[in-house]
Write a structure and sequence with these properties.
about 325 residues; seven-stranded parallel beta sheet; about 45% helix; GLUCM_C
Length: about 325
C-alpha cells in the first residue's frame, strides 16, 4: 500500500475533479457537491477505501446494466455501466483475489459475460469461481440473475444474501425506484417492465450492515437516495425520477463508467500497483465489445461505442488522464 497520505489526498482530489466535470451539462456538478458534503471528503477515495477494505478472497456483489428500452424488449442494454463494472471487478480480482458476482437481468447476462471476458476475466459458476478466489489461480467472476417480480423480490433477496454472504455490495448505473415505486428513465418514462428489482436486494444488504458503494450520473440510480434534494433541484424531471435507495458511499460522476474507472485508479494509487489501472486501450476494447453485443448509446438511440452521447475518443482520453494522475504513486507504472 502507498503510505504517503499527502500524495494520496492530492491524487484523490484530482480524480474527484475529473469525474465531476459536467461535460454533458446534466447538473452532475451539483450532485457531486451534495455527495461530497455528505461524505465529508473525497468520493472516489472513499469508494476505493471501501473496496480495498474487503477481505482477500471474499465475495462482493456488483450490479449494473440497464434494460434501456424495456417497453420494447428486455434484451436491449445500455453501454454505460458494464465497462465500468468490469474495470472494478478486474481490479478487485487482481488486487485481492475477490470473487465478484455480477447481478443483472437474465436477459442481459450473456452480454455481460462477453464484457467481463474482454476485460480479462474468466466467468465461472459460483462454486467453481470460489476455488479460484481461494488459490488466486484465475482472475474470475460469476453471474446471477435476480427476479423481476415485486412480490418475490424481498424473499429472493434474503435467500441470495444468506447463500452468498457478500462482504460489500457495489452498484453502478443501476436504476432504482422513485418515491412512487416507478423505475424512471432520465426522460421520466416508466421503464420498469422486465427489470430486476435489485434495489430491493441492495436495501436488504444495507439492513444487514453490509457496506455499500454506488456510482451514478443522473439521479435515478441506486445510491442517489443519499442526495434526493439535490437531484430534485438540479436534474431535469428530478422530482419525479429521483431514486430513493441510498448508499454508504455515493460517487456522482459525469458518466458512470468514469466514476468506476476513477475508483479503480484510486485503488491502483493506494496499492502502488499499475496492473490495476484501467488503460485507454482497455477502455477502447470494452466499449467496442459493447457494440459487438448490441449495447446502445442511450442518449443518441443507436448502437455505437459512444457513451452518454460523448464520443469514444473522449472516453479513451479520460482513461489516459486517469492514468497520468495516478502514475506518481505507482511502483509498477502502467
Amino acid at each position: 500500500m502507498t503510505t504517503d497520505p499527502k500524495l494520496i489526498a492530492a491524487i484523490d482530489a484530482r480524480l474527484d475533479k475529473l469525474v465531476s466535470l459536467d461535460v454533458g451539462g446534466r447538473g452532475v456538478e451539483h450532485l457531486f457537491q451534495a455527495a461530497f458534503l455528505r461524505q465529508g471528503g473525497s468520493l472516489v477515495g472513499a469508494a476505493a477505501d471501501a473496496l480495498l477494505a474487503v477481505p482477500d478472497g471474499s465475495t462482493v456483489f456488483i450490479t449494473t446494466g440497464s434494460v434501456s428500452r424495456a417497453w420494447i424488449s428486455p434484451e436491449i442494454g445500455e453501454n454505460d455501466g458494464p465497462a465500468g463494472a468490469a474495470a472494478v471487478i478486474r481490479a478487485l480480482a487482481i488486487a485481492k483475489r475477490v470473487h465478484c458476482v455480477l447481478i443483472a437481468e437474465e436477459t442481459l447476462l450473456p452480454g455481460m459475460k462477453a464484457i467481463l471476458t474482454s476485460a480479462g476475466l474468466t466467468v465461472l459458476p459460483f462454486d467453481l469461481a470460489q476455488i479460484a478466489a481461494k488459490d488466486g489461480s484465475l482472475a474470475i467472476a460469476s453471474m446471477l440473475p435476480f427476479t423481476t417480480s415485486d412480490d418475490d423480490a424481498k424473499s429472493h433477496a434474503k435467500a441470495m444474501l444468506d447463500r452468498h454472504q457478500p462482504a460489500l455490495f457495489f452498484s453502478t448505473e443501476r436504476v432504482g425506484r422513485a418515491r412512487d415505486g416507478v423505475y424512471y428513465s432520465m426522460r421520466a418514462i416508466d421503464y420498469g417492465m422486465g427489470r430486476s428489482r435489485i434495489d430491493l436486494l441492495f436495501e436488504e444488504a444495507q439492513a444487514r450492515g453490509i457496506p455499500t458503494v454506488a456510482v451514478g450520473d443522473g439521479g435515478n440510480e441506486i445510491g442517489m437516495g443519499a442526495i434526493t434534494p439535490a437531484v430534485s433541484q438540479h436534474v431535469k424531471f428530478g422530482e419525479t425520477i429521483a431514486a430513493v435507495t441510498s448508499s454508504d458511499v455515493l460517487v456522482a460522476a459525469a458518466c458512470s463508467n468514469w466514476g468506476c474507472n476513477a475508483i479503480v485508479a484510486a485503488m491502483a494509487a493506494r496499492r502502488g500497483d499499475g496492473r490495476l489501472v484501467h488503460t485507454p486501450e482497455m477502455e477502447r476494447q470494452l466499449l467496442n465489445r459493447g457494440v459487438d453485443i448490441g449495447l446502445i448509446n442511450s442518449v443518441q438511440n443507436v448502437v455505437d461505442a459512444n457513451v452518454d452521447g460523448l464520443p469514444l475518443e473522449t472516453h479513451v482520453a479520460f482513461a489516459e488522464m486517469l492514468r497520468t494522475v495516478v502514475r506518481p504513486a505507482l511502483k509498477q507504472p502502467n
